Amino acid sequence: MAISLNYHLFAGNPLRSKTPKLHDPLSLSSSFESLKSHLHQNPETHPPNSPFFKVLLFKKGRPLVSSSIEEEDGVAPSWHLGWIDLADCKTILGKHGVQLTESSLVYLGSRAEEHVVYWAMDVVENGELATELSNRKQLCFVELRTLMTATDWTDSWVMGDLAIAGHGRALLEWHNQSRFCGHCGDKTVPKEAGRMKQCSNELCKKSVYPRLDPVVIMLVIDRENNRVLLGRQSRFVPRMWSCLAGFIEPGESLEEAVRREAYEETGIEVGEVVYHSSQPWPVGPNSLPCQLMVGFFAYAKSHEINVDKEELEDARWHSREDVRKALRFAEYKKAQRLAAAKVDQMIKGVKKRRSSSAGYLAKSGEFAPMFVPGPFAIAHHLISAWANQDPPTGAKAQMKKPPSGFVSKL
């Protein structure tokens, strides 16, 4: 099953497509000044040329979402972000003792045609607040990784919502991880509408910017024997295989990182390294708020595998036919629909949740002998690109930019 996407999940954020000029009312600085006026005066009264404001709440990295389509006649439900108007948000939070201030909001971006500026906010664990949101607006906090698997990659609106949610989680988790200055130890305070932080110590005032952790992910290819090297980590579900990957070290080029990681994990020497595409990955642990997966094809110079058991559970060569069979057998669309139904149940407060493991059954009802990550991951596209067509030497990136007419359903 070859699945072709115009861009990776978490890319194509519609709120970051264009940066307004400094004095534009939708720009970061102008909208932040307008926001302060709204919060300290009457939020129902909009000053001249002031944009409208919407807020996306997060709890422990989970964005607030709602379900937009009922499951009927074979049509799977669809989720979307649970934006709340600023005035409504202030009222709801105030009832539960949470003060909405400009320092608690992080600027996400804007859409000029709507004259709206979007913000993110982290809220602490509060059962009463979650209950009220669910009762009043049918909203629920859902893990970003769950939303990732539930996203219909053919729906540009939901793809845009996922990218916004990923951006918001990355920024808010970075704020939680950078509460103190790494230079002097004093507290940091948000600046530039939450897009940077600064040390509160007048003698230090060190600036801190959002953290990004680059990771190389590579499909190691044996040209001579028409096969690829795939690995298994102990945390993987049974029968799943994927590409090798690893963090880039200081003073190291991308190509050097690919060769080093392949050799350290499997003992395979790599020669030529060809870039494919990159993908933001904001679903890692809290300590790594946003990884950037940089994908490559890596061509093997040796063939004998020597697995580092501290890094991988196993690594094996897989033929092109075996990989094609895995792509055909694993019903990724079915798994996505089951995950979407699970999210819909969570929003509606249904305790019993469906398992998505059935999504990897073959049509005969048997389990697929092996499968690779779904279309939400860059690994899938590296593997399927090789399985269906040899990537040419020196190939340009396969993934495309979002179309110019790309919009998000906000």
TrEMBL record:
Region listing for Disordered, in residue ranges: 391-410
Annotated GO CC locations: cytosol; peroxisome
Keywords per UniProt: Hydrolase, Magnesium, Metal-binding, NAD
InterPro entries in the record: NAD-cap_RNA_hydrolase_NudC, NADH_PPase-like_N, NudC-like_C, Nudix_hydrolase, NUDIX_hydrolase-like_dom_sf, NUDIX_hydrolase_CS, NUDIX_hydrolase_dom, Znr_NADH_PPase
Cofactor: Zn(2+); Mg(2+)
UniProt xrefs under Gene3D superfamilies: 3.90.79.20, Nucleoside Triphosphate Pyrophosphohydrolase (3.90.79.10)
UniProt xrefs under PROSITE patterns: NUDIX, NUDIX_BOX
Nudix hydrolase domain sequence ranges: 210-340
UniProt similarity note: Belongs to the Nudix hydrolase family. NudC subfamily.
Protein name: NAD(+) diphosphatase
Species per Swiss-Prot/TrEMBL record: Gossypium raimondii (Peruvian cotton)
Lineage: Eukaryota, Viridiplantae, Streptophyta, Embryophyta, Tracheophyta
